[in-house]
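User: Second chain of the day. Same drill as before.
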Amino acid sequence: MVSYFSLGPTTSVRVELEALSPTGPYRLEIDHPAKKVVEYFDTPFEALVRHAEIETALCGGVLPANKVN
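Assistant: Same format as last time:
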């Protein structure tokens, strides 16, 4: 699955979620113009939750208190 989200009028971030086998693990790749982030997860749900966290942080949103480092 590939998706994009916008950080402004000229900047977008590409997100790819890929199953490495039919039952996982799952690879989440975030291609930000300044840096690429790659993380691996046991379930697609975990990967999508992480995707939402990263998108929220990059777009200036507020993260839940238990996710703030």
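Residues 2-67 form one domain.

User: Great, on to the next one.
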